[in-house]
Write a structure and sequence with these properties.
This protein has 16 helices and 3 strands. It is mainly alpha-helical. The protein folds into 2 domains: about 170 residues, no CATH class; about 180 residues, Intergrase catalytic core (hpI Integrase, Chain A).
Length: about 375
């Protein structure tokens, strides 16, 4: 079965060049003769169009480069698995329709793939297991892609129905709860060893609640003076190119200055506004993956101060710490949601669900009880 699929014209790994303009011209030509816009597309072209299509007049509002890369990697992995492990998965295709792998798939193939991925894939055979969140993410990408193919008429059946629901229960989510006292212990650890770089990274992430990607994109010019309230604020560009303004406490601004001084960078008032605000030791902007690896390496230097903290410390954990600290200070949920750049309250609630569970437990509202003598 794998050899049959490999013999088709589908070759997503060929590194074949394309441009959105050329694909748009093919769509326009099909529309002109009143055909389905994707009548002349092959699997590679429909995949690339799905990932890179410009839906908004302002391209900045489309999927981010990181999201496009994530979708492409996941779909490439899916295709590679079908080609290399088709027999094991149970991809019982006898005839390739129109030279298209996608048009030849049925709901059972997606269901079998999902089951194989979770229970028998090479990743699992190495003694590892995909977390529920990872399975949910992979399922969402596949479902979105095949629903799109059905919607635009590239395939004739909604085969995404073959994918089982992969939801993430509250108890399945990794523990990312970090309280203010934990953050203080970590900051003191880096302060004690005179490490202004890590001190500033952690303080900025915690005191602003920004995402790792947002942190890495910050420019010097994003630190702005607040002529209305005094002090400074960060102008952050988040998902969907949406901007939000985040006030900076004076000591946070001081930590940024100390970071730049430690890295040998120009002072804020003298630096090029378009230069990265935070840089690696080589003077280049951080990437999200580098921040994660750098943080993991440097945290080993303050292991003694981390005793009792059993949360895996990543940039995202300090974003959670911002939400948790805000809630402990009785900040309104809507304000926290807006400050984090969330679109939905449900997302913010995920950050705070364990805090709420403890805060709203009935025992906290006992005013008088026969147990008062012992409580």
């Amino acid at each position: 079965m794998s050899q049959l699929m490999k013999s088709t014209t589908f070759d997503i790994f060929a590194g074949r060049g394309f441009s959105l303009e050329e694909l748009q011209e093919k769509i326009d030509a099909s529309e002109k003769v009143k055909q389905n816009p994707f009548a002349d597309f092959d699997d590679v072209e429909i995949l690339l169009w799905y990932i890179h299509e410009q839906k908004h007049a302002d391209a900045k509002n489309d999927r981010s480069a990181r999201t496009r890369k994530e979708y492409e990697n996941e779909l490439r992995l899916f295709i590679g698995h079908l080609l290399d492990h088709g027999t094991e998965i149970g991809v019982d295709i006898e005839t390739i329709e129109e030279g298209s792998l996608f048009k030849s798939l049925a709901p059972r193939h997606l269901r079998r793939y999902q089951e194989w991925l979770i229970n028998e894939s090479p990743h699992v055979q190495k003694g590892k297991a995909y977390s529920p969140a990872t399975v949910a993410r992979k399922t969402t990408i596949l479902k979105s892609f095949f629903r799109y193919l059905y919607k635009v008429g590239y395939i004739q059946a909604d085969i995404a129905d073959g994918l089982r629901i992969a939801s993430v229960r509250k108890d399945d989510r990794p523990d990312r709860d970090l309280g203010p006292q934990d953050v203080v212990a970590i900051l003191r650890g880096f302060q004690n060893i005179d490490h202004p770089v890590m001190f500033s990274i952690i303080l900025v992430l915690t005191a602003t609640g920004i995402r790792n990607e947002e942190f890495c994109r910050l420019k010097v010019g994003d630190v702005k003076g607040d002529r209305i309230h005094g002090g400074h604020y960060l102008e952050v560009t988040g998902k969907g190119n949406k901007k939000r303004q985040i006030p900076l406490k004076p000591k946070v601004v001081d930590s940024i200055r100390h970071f730049r001084q430690a890295r040998g960078l120009p002072a804020l008032s003298e630096a090029d506004p378009t230069a990265p605000l935070f840089t690696t030791s080589r003077g280049t902007a951080f990437s999200p993956s580098y921040v994660i690896s750098y943080m993991a390496k440097e945290l080993k230097k303050v292991e003694n101060e981390l005793e009792g903290i059993d949360v895996k410390l990543t940039p995202h954990v300090f974003r959670h710490a911002f939400a948790i600290t805000s809630r402990l200070n009785r900040v309104d949920l809507f304000v926290i949601m807006r400050s984090l750049g969330h679109e939905k309250m449900e997302t913010t609630m995920i950050y705070l669900e364990k805090i709420f569970a403890r805060q709203e437990n009935a025992v906290n509202q006992w005013s008088k009880s026969a147990l008062d003598e012992f409580l």
